[in-house]
Amino acid sequence: MRGWIWNGLMAVALVAAPVVAADKVQVFDLPEGAHPHDAAPAPDGKIWYTAQAQGALGILDPATGKVEQVPLGDGSAPHGVIQGPDGKAWITDGGQNAIVSFDPGSREVSVHPLPEDAAYANLNTAAFDAEGTLWFTGQSGIYGRLDPASGKIEVFDAPHGRGPYGITATPAGDIYYASLAGSYLGRIDTKTGEATVIEPPTPRQGARRVWSDSEGQIWVSEWNAGQLSRYTPSSGAWRSWPLPGASPHAYGVYVDDQDIVWLSDFGANAVLRFDPATETFESFPGSAPDAEVRQINGRPGEVFAPESGIDRLMVIRTDAG
Fold first, then answer.
1. What pTM did the predictor assign?
2. How far is residue 138 CA from its own chain's centroid?
3. Long-range contacts of range 5-11, CB-CB < 8 Å, 24 or more positions apart?
4. Per-residue pLDDT for 209 more than 90?
């Protein structure tokens, strides 16, 4: 049972009970038609998600099941969301061609449009470097940076044109991104803004998302190849592991606080847990067919998997049992 109150600014779910409850897994219903794309931890124990089809930032309280959605602006179609060092939600909004922030304290929504001379970027994801600068990608063939203090945005043309997709920061604050259409890993010089292409060993692998582990190694989900790869910057070495199953398609990748790697596999309709120490996979099936988990994120003890195809959010509790 689900009830909604509309107050002109947001929809509040009075009851959003988990549809699956187990020692390790809870799955929460979200507003119908939200199509949650990415998720991120909020600073108060709640979970943010981008309601891409409804132009809103979603806020789920997993303790109570309460859900609310905050509209982000006319034409909004948010893609990625992360928590910034300032505790705000930072959102890549393809619909507004802008970076949007949400302050959970004041509840202020701030829109930072790309420069007027910048074309439509098809904004994707973002990460903060060591200096607190926000870097972001656009599939149309750009990457860029935003200074949160001044609001200044710079946009750069990506090598090989269209494709920049996932992006990550290492513990040292270095920035890497993946190019889905270009099938490469890019390293950004955060001082000059220049990007260096790093070619993975598998041709046309479709590098989609990236995440750094605690040692600064870069984990890559390879959509076309259906595999997980790891790049070690200190040596330049690559390792790759095919995903289990007949027709894997690796979409999201996330490395938790224990350096366990999590992936979404559209081919298996599942979230996969990969242990680098044993080089083994464990599968968590989607809560229904065609769950379509996009990006994965989390915090110590919890992993978030937004099921965009069925308007649900799965929470896997890694400290349970």
1. 0.92
2. 14
3. 9/70, 9/71, 10/56, 10/68, 10/69, 10/70, 10/71, 11/67, 11/68, 11/69
4. yes
